[in-house]
Amino acid sequence: MSKLDGARVVxxxxxxxxxxxxxxxxxxxxxxxxxxxxALVRGVPENLHEALATGRAELREMDIRDRxxxxxAVDGADILFHQAALRWTRCQEEPRDCQEVMVDGTFNxxxxxxxxxxxxxxxASSAVVYGEPRKLPLDEDQPLNGKTVYxxxxxxxxxxxxxxxxxxxxxxxxxxxxxxxxPRMDIRSDYTEVMIKWLDRIDRREPLVINGxxxxxxDYIYVADVVRANLLACEAQVTDAIVNVCSGAETQxxxxxxxxxxxTGTDVGIEHRGSEPEGALPTxxxxxxxxxxxxxxxxxxxxxxxxxxxxxxxxxxxxxGAGSR
Length: 325
Ligand SMILES: NC(=O)c1ccc[n+]([C@@H]2O[C@H](COP(=O)([O-])OP(=O)(O)OC[C@H]3O[C@@H](n4cnc5c(N)ncnc54)[C@H](O)[C@@H]3O)[C@@H](O)[C@H]2O)c1
Fold this sequence. Notes:
Elements: E1 8-12, H1 17-28, E2 33-38, H2 49-53, E3 57-61, H3 67-74, E4 79-82, H4 88-93, H5 95-115, E5 120-126, H6 149-168, E6 172-177, E7 179-181, H7 194-203, E8 208-211, E9 217-218, E10 220-222, H8 223-235, E11 241-245, E12 251-252, H9 253-264, E13 270-273, H10 290-296, H11 304-319
Bound molecules: nicotinamide-adenine-dinucleotide.
Nicotinamide-adenine-dinucleotide binds next to helix 1, strand 2, helix 5, strand 5 and strand 7.
């Protein structure tokens, strides 16, 4: 039987992309009650439309910086999925906000989970902790060379989780997500991901802009796979584990651009401008999924072509106001 069956579940960042899908999955797995905590800085209530309609989910608009509010919301929880975070660009612009939300806020969440004697905490980390890879694919033993404020906060989160696992016997699994895409990605703000920016340009009949030759790469993982990794982490017997959640496939920007053009049937083309910007993020990234398979039994199932096809369909419906799935 699933640990989620009959469980009281809390999902921080529960109105966001990954968080809202976890809410849906927890309900589908038989959770008695799912509380989505979200300050709604990026997530939107529409993401929880169907979950709220079941009568078993609740959206609590609150900030994880509020220690007492977190304590009260997590009180009585059996399982906690911690997804709340700021976007990495916001952390670069406002490092103190990053510290307060992602480090102090995560401390509040772990402290509350320990007080509630939660049976399982699954924590969202990021491949950004690795920074420039020493070798590819990135496995979990590689040094943490990240140079971003967001990455530093995620390292702090991972280490706090480990400390709580040892201090209070809190059963924690930390997942290092690679580049997530799929339905419920942010399609409305200025701070959105490259796939969405390019789909917007395709709608405007403008060429897809790539800085440099487009050889920069990433490991794209479909959101439903990320959710499945969370559920497996919830069921796993391990504790104090840190694993990659990646597809294991490296995709160059120019390959991604070509795929979007093909799937949308457009001929706006690709425009190369200048050179790859010197940035805080690495130019190549691909994860090694071996440990996730060994530890959690997780392997990504949705290929990039199928996942992007579903993203395109969802975006079309969402922009037409037809729903948020
Ligand atoms: N999307 C990716 O590619 C990616 C990659 C690696 C790691 N991650 C991590 O995965 C998790 C989920 O990411 P996502 O893509 O669903 O992001 P998201 O922005 O859609 O969701 C995060 C949610 O946290 C909420 N939030 C922010 N500050 C808060 C606060 N102070 N109190 C309460 N809620 C707050 C936001 O409103 C948002 O709904 C995050 O921890 C993120 O850092 C994401």
